[in-house]
Design a protein that fits this description.
Blueprint: E1 7-16, E2 19-23, E3 33-36, E4 49-56, E5 62-65, E6 77-85, E7 88-92, E8 99-102, E9 115-122, E10 128-131, E11 149-158, E12 162-167, E13 171-176, E14 189-197, E15 203-206, H1 211-228, E16 232-233, H2 241-248, H3 252-264, E17 268-270, E18 275-277
Parallel strand pairs: 13-15
Antiparallel strand pairs: 1-2, 1-4, 2-3, 4-5, 6-7, 6-9, 7-8, 9-10, 11-12, 11-14, 12-13, 14-15, 16-18, 17-18
Helix pairs in contact: 1-3
Length: 278
């Protein structure tokens, strides 16, 4: 069966001045698809079998190409947004007709130049479109273990849960909302640490190092903020966690560990009013 959005091996059943018509081997050729002359390999002839990708051109005709297409139905790829208009976005995928990404298939508003993770689907009119809703395609069979460092792309953010990440563009992972201390956007490449490999194989990530490694960096942040503010800040170990997060992009536990380190080093004093450089 001939299917759009996939690579298939088809047989050359007819040659014309403008290209070749391809069909399934052993059929009567009633369903044939044009491979334009400029797309055909040199020396192609009737009876040859060619591996081609099938899509619809700008006139909505089924057409074949021998070009290397970065994404097919059931697979994932990071593509660049070329244009955005009132109906959706259009992505560059190396073909003459750009790939349409409807607004309803966007997990976040995109703009020209963004690079986003997508897959293909056929809409109700049998046209190939892109979607950013890729959760169901991500693998849970990653090779990673606790404390491994990984790289991935953010493909969705749900405020009540956290940030969803495709590690290596293919493995399912999430950064819980309580681990988000800096702004993160869909399409952003992140480097994180695996904190948990869940029973279902999905990864839980943190953008921070283990506490004993991160502590020095946190202490530097607090020291710089103290110097900027003239040596005093009205925060201490009983301050509101939301205020600490807003001021330092740190969790309250991280803040307490860092000021504890600075206090033990004799760098600061801690009072009921806040922390002060010595």
């Amino acid at each position: 069966m001939i299917e759009l959005g996939k690579y298939q091996t088809l047989e050359v059943i007819k040659k014309t001045d403008f290209g070749f018509y391809l069909g399934e081997a052993g059929t009567d050729g009633k369903h044939s698809i044009l491979l334009p002359q400029k797309e055909a390999p040199e020396g192609a002839a009737v009876g040859d079998r060619l591996n081609v990708f099938l899509y619809r051109d700008s006139e909505d005709r089924e057409i074949a190409t021998t070009a290397k297409v970065p994404v097919t139905i059931g697979e994932l790829a990071v593509l660049e947004v070329k244009q955005v208009n009132k109906v959706g976005a259009f992505l560059d995928w190396g073909l003459m007709k750009d790939l349409f990404l409807p607004y309803k298939e966007q997990t976040a508003k995109v703009k020209e130049g963004d690079r986003i993770l997508v897959t293909l689907y056929l809409d109700k009119s049998s046209r190939l479109c892109a979607t950013m809703k890729v959760y169901h395609l991500l693998s849970t069979a990653s090779p990673y273990r606790k404390d491994d460092t990984v790289t991935g792309i953010v493909y969705e953010i749900i405020d009540s849960f956290g940030v969803f990440v495709a590690v290596d563009n293919k493995y399912s992972a999430m950064i819980p909302k309580n681990e988000i201390f800096v702004p993160v956007q869909v399409g952003e490449i992140i480097h994180g640490r695996v904190t948990t490999v869940r029973e279902d194989g999905k990864l839980t990530l943190s953008l921070r190092e283990k506490s004993y490694v991160q502590m020095d960096a946190d202490a530097v942040i607090i020291m710089e903020r103290l110097k900027e503010s003239g040596g005093f800040l009205p925060y201490h170990d009983k301050s509101d966690p939301d205020q600490i997060k807003s001021e330092f992009n740190l969790s309250k536990n991280s803040f307490k560990r860092a000021i504890g380190r600075l206090y033990k080093a004799g760098t600061i004093t801690i009072t009921e009013e806040g922390i002060r450089l010595v």
